[in-house]
Amino acid sequence: MARAKLLTDNDPYPVKLHKPSSPSKVLVVCDHAGDLIPNALQDRNVSLADLSTHIAIDIGAYAVAVELAKNLNATLVSQRYSRLVVDMNRPTNSDQGMPAYSDDTRIPFNQNIGDTERQTRLDEIYHPYHNEIVRQLDEIGESAVLIAMHSFTPKLKNAPKRIWHVDLMTRTHSKFSENLKQQLQAQFPNLNIGLGEVFQMTDERDFTIPFHGESRNIPNISIEVRNDLLQSHTDISRWGEILALSIPASLQTASDADFQIAV
């Protein structure tokens, strides 16, 4: 018997591309860009209020990613569906890939998910996204640079306030992250910039950077901006500009390779 589909003709394709096959060496990805819920899950939906919070989407991250990709003349790969349906930045065997609870909020459509439904979400939403990243990186080749754009909430429930404005994470290209911190700090001395302070990248928690960046040994970084700094179009444009200015300079001093943004 054929397995029931999750996405119908009325549901958008999960992957969204900006400037596909750009000449730039940079690939920007946004794992938690969208807040869509497939129609088949609407009757078990979380509240609209919850769908507008950090548990469902990285607030402002997609808009910054668009600005960053535009300023770098780079391709952007993003996901349309909410991280609550399936989290693009979790390994396929992670319990947090389809969380029953997120920041103490019960997620109705993730209660007692069976193996068949879990696999369907992976096949129809998760794998197309990561397959597209593979395709884009293959096209760029060994000179590729992978930038994952995220945002984080200033405070989780029952947790201390997060004092950092931006957090930079990489396990294999620390010189890149250190240089990027210096570049950002030079432009904005009052920024509180962490290097893996808000989140620590692990194989259990993270998938995109380890799978796509570390496995290819290409320059890679996950950039997390605190979402209260992304509340207006001006804020978003500003972050897109300062990151686009800082990333190329950080790479030029992090590697012997001559890195230039193709235009």
How would you characterize this protein structure?
The structure is a single chain. About 30% of the residues lie in helices and about 15% in strands. With about 260 residues, it is α/β, with parallel strands linked by helices. The chain has a single domain, classed as Aminopeptidase (3-Layer(aba) Sandwich). The chain has a seven-stranded mixed beta sheet, with helices on both faces. The protein has a two-stranded antiparallel ribbon with strand order 4-5. A hairpin with a 2-residue loop joins β4 (about 100) and β5 (about 105). α2 crosses α6 and α4 (about 175-185) packs across α6 (about 235-250). The longest helix is centred in the middle third of the chain and has 26 residues, at about 115-140. The protein is globular.
User: What strand line-up does the widest sheet have?
Assistant: 1-3-2-6-9-7-8
- Assembly context of the chains: single chain
Radius of gyration: 18 Å
Strand content: 15-25%
Write the layout of secondary structure elements.
Layout lengths: L14 E4 L7 E5 L17 H4 L9 H12 L2 E5 L21 E2 L2 E2 L8 H26 L4 E8 L13 E4 L4 H14 L5 E3 L12 H7 L5 E7 L6 H20 L11
Parallel strand pairs: 2-3, 2-6, 6-9, 7-8
Antiparallel strand pairs: 1-3, 4-5, 7-9
Helix pairs in contact: 2-6, 4-6
